[in-house]
Design goal:
Elements (H helix, E strand, L loop, with lengths): L7 E2 L5 E2 L1 E2 L5 E5 L2 H4 L12 H6 L17 H15 L3 E5 L2 H4 L9 H16 L3 E7 L5 H5 L7 H17 L5 E6 L1 H11 L9 H24 L5 E6 L4 E3 L4 H24 L4 H6 L13 H5 L5 E5 L4 E5 L17 E4 L14 H15 L4 E6 L16 H19 L4 E7 L18 E4 L4 E4 L1 H12 L1 E2 L3
Parallel strand pairs: 4-5, 4-14, 5-6, 6-7, 7-8, 8-10, 9-11, 10-13, 13-14
Antiparallel strand pairs: 1-2, 3-17, 11-12, 15-16
Helix pairs in contact: 3-5, 7-9, 8-9, 13-14
The chain binds 5-hydroxymethyl-3,4-dihydroxypiperidine.
Amino acid sequence: MTILGATETLTGDRRADLRFPVDFWWGAATAAYQIEGAVTEGGRTPSIWDVFTATPGRIEDGGTGETATDHFHRYREDVALMAELGLAAYRFSVAWPRIRSAGGAGVNTAGLDFYDRLVDALLAAGITPVATLYHWDLPQELEQAGGWTNRDTAGHFADYASAVAGRLGDRVRLWNTLNEPWCSAFLGYGSGGHAPGRTSHRDALTATHHLLLAHGLATRALRAAATTGQVGIALNAGRVRPVSTAPADLDAARRIDGLLNRIFFDPLLRGAYPADIQADTAGITDWSFVRDGDLAVISTPIDALGINYYQPDLVGAAPAGQSDPGTPYPTAQDIVFHPTPGPVTDMGWSIDPTGLREVLLGIRRDYGDIPMYVTENGAAYVDRVTPDGRVPDPERIDYLHAHLAAVHEAMSAGVDLRGYFVWSLLDNFEWGYGYSKRFGLVHVDYATQARTLKDSAHWYREVIAAGGLETR
Ligand code: IFM
């Protein structure tokens, strides 16, 4: 790919100082449970998030995915919005509970029909479909059989991948097997902050392995189904920085980097778990869930890596008496996360685009020249519709501008980055925070389901039309 750095006139009088390749995928992303609603329609079976959100106290504002942004019924309107923005690609997730029949015998074709229609609507609008197979919504029946701590779940996932590939494999151009398996394993089974809400670090490590195995088996299943698109996975890669150069702080950074990044990147791209992390966690598990041949499956070559980035982490050893018993990280009760100096988003997440550049460069340095996409990046802010029908969100524009500039820097330094997906297209159900956090380019009034383009959506449309950014 050639990166054009010079100022060049594109169409009309539009100019961009930071040019991106003409075939760059300017995208936006969503996930099924966060937007679809219609949880009892079309033969969908319950997911772990239906059960989790129905449990009092789990979700900050008591929200559920029951209606969400009603995308299941409004997907045509939403595709029209994407077309209005000029998106080149749209990353959605397929809900496994829509595809798996109750009892697990067979495939629910009505579920496949929905995604078939969505993909055709995207293509008709000139938008490239990018599908994630697992964005955290495990069928509840499988959780009852042990969920991701049960090795069989990986095999079921491969069967599900085959079924989806059989229907959509001729049109989806990029597959993400899993989205952020760290969250599924460490928040779902470790801290319990996400569904299914289990709190066992041993289970979190077991789930990590079975998720990775599921990825490898699904990668092979997608290829066996003769899909024409690229196959990859989306990881929430983090830039982990020590708070000081004191040995205990450096060691804290090593451990968090190991449990956030290397525990996924190493088996996927090197075919081995990090030895230091296996040694650190030896008191929690003997890792006997790793069987002969598993790592060869997990490291089945992928075509592209998806990177989800929001903020860097600043970590250090906890002062005496300040341990964190609820940490999602196994063996890390004696580590604290420090606030990073500088501005934060409405999530309290620090705004630091240098972390994104460093993550992308670090992956290239440590794992080689693998094609990458930024599959998620974005920010939550308190957004309101003004009386004249606008949604001013200058902070989000600044956030996206700065992170796209960081992406451009990484590309100029040689990273093979092929697309960027804003999280998110629409305001939506933000997991444990319910509807209290708005990440969308498009504002959603949850009472009426009215969609309003935020100023950032208008800005993004201009960026896409110009093929890049003006420097600031
Ligand atoms: O909303 C989530 C998304 O589902 C996964 N990545 C992070 C986003 C913001 O928290």
